[in-house]
Amino acid sequence: MWDLLIVGTGPAGVSAALTARARGLSFLWFGSRRLSDKVEKAERILNYPGLPRVTGRELRDAFLRQVDDLGIPIQQARVAAVYEMGGHYAVCAGPDFYEGRCLILATGVAAGGQIPGESRLLGKGVSCCATCDGELYRGRNIAVVCESQSLEEDVRFLQSVAGHVELFCTYAGGLADTPGCHKGRPQAIEGDDRVTGVRWADATLPVEGVFCLRETVAPQALLSGLAMENGHIQVDRAQRTNLPGCFAAGDCTGEPLQVSKAVGEGLTAALSAAEYLDQLPKKDTAE
Question: Are 35 and 131 a contacting pair, CB within 8 Å?
Answer without folding.
Answer: no
